[in-house]
Specification:
The protein has about 260 residues and is of the alpha+beta class. It has six helices and ten strands; from the N terminus they run H-E-E-E-E-H-H-E-E-E-E-H-H-E-E-H. The protein has a single domain, classed as Glutamine Phosphoribosylpyrophosphate, subunit 1, domain 1. It has a five-stranded antiparallel β-sheet with strand order 8-1-2-9-10. Helix 4 (about 165-175) packs across helix 5 (about 185-195) and helix 5 (about 185-195) packs across helix 6. InterPro entries: Ntn_hydrolases_N, Proteasome_alpha, Proteasome_alpha-type, Proteasome_asu_N, Proteasome_sua/b. Its main location: cytoplasm. Pfam families: Proteasome, Proteasome_A_N. It is found in: Cytoplasm; Nucleus. It comes from Saccharomycopsis crataegensis.
């Protein structure tokens, strides 16, 4: 791998103003399996693709519950995500104990950002090699934030991270304007369809897919067989669309034959 004199620590800027250790951490996110987040007026949804190292091993956990109104999904190094999730759980408990109210989603995202940014200010530490999508619901509504190892947190209506996430982003960019008025089932359906755009040689299944939704009624996480109804809904609609397309092409061929005669 190419090396230079400015990538041995996370606190030295290159002459062009870059922190190479932070950029390497961002590359680690691109190696993780894809995850999609999207929001409506009343709900926020995460849909994640789980990965197993080999057929004999279990799938990595992707969605982590922080509180009854807050969850995160990771792409990148899972151990780093575990450290950050434990930190955020502690802060959520402190908010309940000290202020008798759940932590706001904006506050939770900013706390993670501050913790990550400290690793770019002192020797002996490295940036966290993980990206997070944070969903939650508080008194100001539903929220989706993206956390980056550099300490940036950005709010989104919809977003995707991880390997081949550009396909999901393209789908979300085309459809995000309709998300506000969708109910929870329709929002999940769009999230599943967006995640499918990241696949290359595999298919979504009950083993490799996790879905989380949060709203006024709290947080729900669907895994294993609980995911099957959402996957079937997308599959049925796709098959119906293919049948319609085939019927339409048949009609066009008949019209062309008639014109030729």
């Amino acid at each position: 791998m190419f090396r230079n004199n400015y990538d041995s620590d996370a606190v030295t800027f290159s002459p062009t103003g870059r922190l190479f250790q932070v950029e390497y951490a961002l590359e680690a996110i691109k190696q993780g399996s894809a995850a999609v987040g999207l929001t409506s007026k009343n709900n926020a949804v995460l849909v994640a693709l789980k990965r197993n190292a080999e057929d004999l091993g279990s799938y990595h956990k992707k969605v982590i519950k922080i509180d009854d109104h807050l969850a995160i999904v990771l792409a990148g190094l899972a151990p780093d995500a575990r450290v950050l999730s434990n930190f955020l759980r502690t802060k959520a408990m402190e908010s309940k104990m000290l202020f008798n109210r759940p932590i706001s989603i904006q506050k939770a995202a900013n706390l993670l950002a501050d913790k990550a940014q400290q690793n770019t200010q002192s020797y002996g530490s490295r940036p966290y090699g993980v990206g997070l999508l944070i969903i939650g619901y508080d008194e100001s509504g539903s929220h989706l934030f993206e956390f980056q190892p550099s300490g940036n947190v950005l709010k989104y209506k919809a977003n995707a991270i991880g390997a081949r996430s550009q396909g999901a982003k393209t789908f979300l960019e085309k459809n995000f304007e309709s998300f506000d008025d969708l109910n929870d089932a329709e929002l999940i359906k769009n999230g599943v369809e967006a995640l499918r755009q990241t696949l290359k040689d595999s298919e979504l299944s009950t083993s490799n897919t996790t879905i989380a939704i949060v709203g006024k009624d709290g947080l729900k996480i669907y895994e294993d067989e609980d995911v099957e109804p959402f996957l079937e809904q997308v599959t049925v609609e796709e098959e119906g669309g293919d049948d319609d397309a085939q019927d339409g092409s048949g009609d066009e061929r008949m019209e062309e034959d008639g014109a030729a005669q």
